[in-house]
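[worker-b] picked up task from shared queue
[worker-b] task type: protein-ligand structure
[worker-b] ligand name resolved to NDP; SMILES cross-checked against name lookup, match
[worker-b] sequence length check passed
[worker-b] input payload:
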Amino acid sequence: MPENAPHLIDGKQIAEDIKVEIAAEVARLKAAGQKVPHLAAILVGHDGGSETYVRNKVLACERVGFGSTLLRFEADITEAALLAEVQRLNDDPEIDGFIVQLPLPRHIDAEKVIETIQPEKDVDGFHPTNLGRMVAGLPALLPATPSGIVELLARAGIKTSGQHAVVIGRSNIVGTPVSILLAKNLDTANCTVTLCHSRTKNLPEVVRQADIIVAAIGRPEFVTADMVKPGAVVIDVGTTRVTDANKKSGYSLKGDVNFAEVAPLASRITPVPGGVGPMTIAMLLLNTLRAAKGEVYPK
Ligand SMILES: NC(=O)C1=CN([C@@H]2O[C@H](COP(=O)(O)OP(=O)(O)OC[C@H]3O[C@@H](n4cnc5c(N)ncnc54)[C@H](OP(=O)(O)O)[C@@H]3O)[C@@H](O)[C@H]2O)C=CC1
Ligand SMILES: Nc1nc(=O)c2c([nH]1)NC[C@@H]1CN(c3ccc(C(=O)N[C@@H](CCC(=O)O)C(=O)O)cc3)C=[N+]21
Ligand SMILES: [Mg+2]
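[worker-b] inference finished, payload out:
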C-alpha cells in the first residue's frame, strides 16, 4: 500500500490547513491591536514521548504566531508545589490557556491537578466542568483528540449520520469523550455508537459491525483484518513507541491497527504517524484561540 494511497486520510495535511486558518486569525487579532493568544504547557519529568509531544505543541504555537511558555519540573516535584504552579498560571492574565502533560508521576493525583485548572484556561478540555458542558451540549472547550477525530472525519468528507461507530477504549481523554461526540445530534456526528473496553464480550464480532472504527487502546496492531468489515472507515488513535534498531531515533511509532492487513479492507484509513496525532495539536491550538477570544466563557 503506497503511503499516498487515495484512501489514506491525511491528518497531517488537514492539520496544516487548520493551522493556516488559525494563523490568519492571529494576524487579524494583531492588526486589530489585540492580544496574541498564549499557550503554556507544564511538563513534569523526562518521559521521551511526553517530551516529543510538548515540543511539537510549542513549535506549533510558534508556527501560528501564538506566544508559548514551557514550564519544566523534575519528577520529584511535590503535589502541593505543582498545584501552586497551576494556580499561578490560572492567575496570570498573559496566559490564555495551558495544559499539564499526562501522565504525571504516581505520587501526584492527576484528577486533583486537572480540577485545579480554571475551566476557562483548560484547553485540554479535561476539567469536569468542560466535560459536563460537552455532555450537556453546552458551549465547552472540547478535548483535543476527540474533537480532532470528528473534524478529521468531516474534512475528509466521510458521512457519519446514521453510521455505526465502534470505539475501542474508554479512557477519559479519548475513548469516552469521542463516543459522546460521535453520538451528538450534529451535522458532523449523528452516529450510532458502541463503546468497547477490556471487558467487552466477543470484541472482534462487535467491531466487525462497525462502519467507522475508532481504535484507542494503546496496544500496537490490536485491530486485525478479521475484526474489520470490508469498506469500513478506520481511525487509529494509538501511538506506542516500540524499539526499532532500523530507526535513527531507536524507536518507531505503532498504531493500534495492523495497517498492513487492515488498509486493503478499509474504504478510508488514518496512518500512524500523520493521522490523529497532528489533529490533536491543531485542535489544542484552536481551543487556545477560542479561550483567548472568550468564545466559550465570555471575558
Ligand atoms: N494521537 C493522539 O493524539 C493521542 C494518542 N493517544 C494514544 O492512544 C492510545 C490510547 O490512549 P488512552 O486512551 O490514554 O489509553 P488508556 O490506557 O487510558 O486506555 C486504554 C483503553 O483501552 C482498553 N483496552 C486495553 N486493552 C484492551 C483489550 N485487550 N481489549 C479491549 N479494550 C482494551 C482499556 O480498557 P479498560 O478501561 O477496561 O481497562 C482502556 O479503556 C495510546 O496509544 C495513546 O498513546 C492518546 C491520546 C492522544
Ligand atoms: N495533557 C495532555 N494532553 C494531551 O493531549 C496528551 C497528554 N497529556 N499526554 C499524552 C497524549 C498523547 N498525545 C499526542 C499528541 C500528539 C501526537 C502526535 O503529534 N503524533 C505524531 C507523531 C509524533 C512523533 O513523532 O512521536 C503523529 O501521530 O503523526 C501524539 C500523541 C497527546 N496527549
Ligand atoms: Mg491514560
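[worker-b] attaching auto-annotations
[worker-b] Residues 171 surround magnesium ion (ligand 3) (CB under 6 Å).
[worker-b] releasing lock
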